[in-house]
């Protein structure tokens, strides 16, 4: 089944300021779209809108031809959003932080995917910035979703971690998943489309 994420004429405000208007794009299953542009251009706002966290002032967002705003709970089940903040509780261990997000059975594969298996029992407050980012990205493996929304996903990652992340992205896309990522840095997303926000 061909699933397409399609935006038609989207507009959004941040506070009193119109961030973007008339925004349209399509991403088919297995596809990826890079959101690029200067700071404040609306990349994060667009990701939050697609995640259902920000209201669209105008336009439509469709998944498989259906309006995602008609049933936000159903849409939330098909989206995993990793924002530019890691959302990690320093008082919990690495494994406990991950367990908050979902399926405990999938903890080991999620930790292995980001190279944190050996640190599972370490308090999160002891992690480096890169390790914290890897822990945030482990949620992508933990909670399967068709659409991955990523805000500066490789910030703080070393070369080996970026390569691991590239494998996660490739596997997700090979299974028909969709990726939208806001970035200022090159990402391991071959053949990704690009949407420039001004």
Looking at the overall shape, the CATH architecture is 3-Layer(aba) Sandwich
Secondary structure tally, helices? 6
CATH class: Alpha Beta
Mean pLDDT: 93
Structural category: alpha/beta
| Beta-strand share of residues | 25-35%
**CATH level 4 superfamily:** P-loop containing nucleotide triphosphate hydrolases
Pattern of helices and strands: EEEHEEHEHHHEHEE
Number of domains: 1
What oligomeric state do the depicted chains represent? single chain
Q: Main beta sheet: strand number and arrangement?
A: 5 strands, parallel
Number of strands: 9
Rough outline = globular
Strand order of the largest sheet: 6-7-8-3-9
How far the N terminus sits from the C terminus, by CA atoms, comes to 34 Å
Q: Helix fraction? A: 25-40%
Fill in the keyword field for this structure.
198 residues, alpha/beta, 6 helices, single chain, globular, 5-stranded parallel sheet, Rossmann fold, 4-stranded antiparallel sheet
Task: Note down, in words, how this protein is organized.
With 198 residues, this protein is α/β, with parallel strands linked by helices. The protein has a single domain (4-187), classed as P-loop containing nucleotide triphosphate hydrolases (Rossmann fold). The protein contains six helices and nine strands; from the N terminus they run E-E-E-H-E-E-H-E-H-H-H-E-H-E-E. It has helices at 43-50, 72-76, 94-99, 107-113, 129-142, 159-174, and strands at 4-14, 17-28, 32-36, 58-63, 66-67, 79-82, 147-151, 178-182, 193-196. A hairpin with a 2-residue loop joins strand 4 and strand 5. The protein is globular.
């Amino acid at each position: 089944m061909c699933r397409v994420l399609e935006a038609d004429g989207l507009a959004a405000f941040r506070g009193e300021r119109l961030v973007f208007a008339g925004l349209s794009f399509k991403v088919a299953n297995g596809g990826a779209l890079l959101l690029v542009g200067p700071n404040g251009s609306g990349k994060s706002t667009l990701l939050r809108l697609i995640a259902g966290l920000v209201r669209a002032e105008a336009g439509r967002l469709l998944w498989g031809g259906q309006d995602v705003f008609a049933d936000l709970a159903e849409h939330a089940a098909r989206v995993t959003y990793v924002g530019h903040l890691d959302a990690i509780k320093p008082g919990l261990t690495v494994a406990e932080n991950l367990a908050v997000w979902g399926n405990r059975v999938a903890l080991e594969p999620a930790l292995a995917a980001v190279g944190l298996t050996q640190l599972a029992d370490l308090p999160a407050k002891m992690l480096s910035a890169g390790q914290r980012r890897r822990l945030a990205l482990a949620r992508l493996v933990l909670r399967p979703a068709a659409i991955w929304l990523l805000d500066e996903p490789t910030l703080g990652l070393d070369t080996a971690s970026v390569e691991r992340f590239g494998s996660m992205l490739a596997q997700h896309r090979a299974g028909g998943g969709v990726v939208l990522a806001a970035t200022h840095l090159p990402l391991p997303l071959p053949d990704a489309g690009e949407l420039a926000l001004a």
